[in-house]
# Entry
Amino acid sequence: MNQECFDRLLGWLDPHRDRAGEKYEAIRRGLMMYFDRRDRLDADRLTDLTFDRVCQKLLSIGDSYVGEPAKYVFRVAQYILKENPLPPVLDHDPLANDPKDSLLLEIKEECRESCLAPLSTRDRTLIFEYYRAKRGEERARLAAEYGISSNALTVRVHRIRESLTRCLKDCLKKNGETM
# Structure
């Protein structure tokens, strides 16, 4: 998104620049969570695509749109999600590429185990159960089991996954491999 487009977006969100910036950040966080809850590891990219699309549409709807801008943005996000489906086989393990090279497979497995080892049993169990639970109701049940809200569950899983991904990338890099 270029500066002109970004300025147009902020002006559409709120006439006061500071409030517009706050609204933008809140919508951005919401979009990230929206895509993350749908098991999208590319939430950043999809969020950017959503804002790009909204910026393009502002040229035609800008002054005529009536309603809360956030609702419009999230409606666009639904279309972005439909246009960017998940691959047919998606395992949430960043190392799930089934390489034919047994040495590479061994290195990846060692990295995976070394990155999971520092996690508490509770966090390790949570991350596996979260990705086994495909539906919202199952994840809501999981949140209740952990005594936290669904939002808190999503945030916790996101943080665990981010640290695991970072660890895996570092480990593989040390071994001369990439994800």
About this structure: The chain has eight helices and no strands. The first helix runs from residue 3 to 13.
